[in-house]
Amino acid sequence: MLWTAAEAAAATGGRVASDWVASGVSIDTRSIAPGDLFVALKAARDGHDFVAQALEKGAAAALVSRIPEGVDNSEKLLLVDDVQTGLEALGEAARARFGGRVVAVTGSVGKTSTKEMLRTVLSEQGTVHAAEKSYNNHWGVPLTLARMPKDADFAVIEIGMNHPGEIAPLARMARPHVAMVTIVAPAHLAAFENLEGIAREKASIFEGLEPDGIAIYNGDLAVSGILRDKAAETARKSISFGETAGTHHRLTSVQVMDACTVATGRAWRVPLLFKVMVPGRHFAMNAMGVMAVISALRLDRALAVNALAQWNPGAGRGLREQIRLDPVDDRLTLELIDDAYNSNPASLGAALEVLAAAGTHDHVGRRDKGRRIAYLGDMKELGAQEVTLHEALATSPWIEKIDLVHCVGPLMRALWMKLPREKRGHWTETADKMAEGVVRDLDAGDVVLAKGSLSMGLGRVVDAIRKMRQAPADVDG
């Protein structure tokens, strides 16, 4: 039982006509489960148009601002003046009754992977509630809170933004005991004048801290001073992490290997050695931030280090998988690095470093040598500097170790034109067009990265690569 009708009505100031019990909260009839409270949000479509369908699928009730067409039984409705405001009130009530510890995470890069890292690490030391997806905006945060079981030990809340003034209200709603900024990097520059503006917005997560709250921030940045000053204003204590001398949780070495990352460091005076089972310096940095959270919550570091070695990024966020290309010969494989969910200069640089460090396999395909190949889509919301930031990727130190770069979108054409001819793959306007050629472009022994802003649809290139997979043949004898 998550919400009774009486509890939900008291939380939202709404009106109910019968008793019901909700075991979950949903905004999508495609994934709704029997017993969920359906929230009829207005987004691309008006959720009121789907209330009847939600009730037919077994929803316990629906949170609405009017009686929808096709719904004859108002006994399963929770009527409020405004659905978004009602969802926010439900989230605030869930937070008020929660007895566990809350961690909030924001940053230009690494929010969702750090949230998932925290879920894995904290699960070894108690029950954890966190959003299944990247629910980090004005409806995602209250939805995550509204779904929060009152008896969980920990909750991890991801908070994002596209424009100034978005983070602080969500942080105040979440009221974290610990708040973390992973990194401040050029992203959403179309809505901010400069990196300092982005840093001030990210730092506003600390405004939501509980009175005894702890602020954790990346100490390696040109704008770390902005984070530090805001932490000093709002937090009882602050912890910096990074590679710079003087950071409280400091990485002293990072070894990016083909299938994992091994790091050493210090949690002030305590030496640390940990492994993350995915390659990438940025994952090691996020892991050090997670260890700072563990320190802030006074939890067991040894359990946390062991749990880090079990974590893997989700699909679209650096997930690596082997694609078998032949049903009989298991040597004929290529490796896919699926990082297609989002992209900005910082995260793309980190992904290119991972690809540059990846091991290929020779003498297994049509070509003698395996190759490192990138499919890159436009990085969006970079403002007036967008063309320059795309062109600058051509001088990345990692490009030298990458054999071929295919580019998707008008902005990535700027990079494509700057690449050395021997590294210049195809350029297409759309991901659909690029996806048509992956079968002829790729071979056994290759390692392939796909990365771009979500709206560029590089996931379709990933899907096309996955469709090359062949199941092992059932060979008798």
TrEMBL record:
One of its GO terms (cellular component) is cytoplasm. It is found in: Cytoplasm. Belongs to the MurCDEF family. MurF subfamily. InterPro entries: Mur-like_cat_sf, Mur_ligase_C, Mur_ligase_C_dom_sf, Mur_ligase_cen, Mur_ligase_N, MurCDEF_CellWall_CoF430Synth, MurE/MurF_N, UDP-N-AcMur_synth. Transmembrane segments: none annotated. One of its GO terms (molecular function) is UDP-N-acetylmuramoylalanyl-D-glutamyl-2,6-diaminopimelate-D-alanyl-D-alanine ligase activity. This is UDP-N-acetylmuramoyl-tripeptide--D-alanyl-D-alanine ligase. It catalyses: D-alanyl-D-alanine + UDP-N-acetyl-alpha-D-muramoyl-L-alanyl-gamma-D-glutamyl-meso-2,6-diaminopimelate + ATP = UDP-N-acetyl-alpha-D-muramoyl-L-alanyl-gamma-D-glutamyl-meso-2,6-diaminopimeloyl-D-alanyl-D-alanine + ADP + phosphate + H(+). ATP binds at residues 107-113. It is an enzyme of class 6 (ligase). Coiled coil: none annotated. It holds the Pfam family Mur_ligase. Gene3D superfamilies: Mur ligase, C-terminal domain (3.90.190.20), Mur-like, catalytic domain (3.40.1190.10), MurE/MurF, N-terminal domain (3.40.1390.10). Involved in cell wall formation. Catalyzes the final step in the synthesis of UDP-N-acetylmuramoyl-pentapeptide, the precursor of murein.
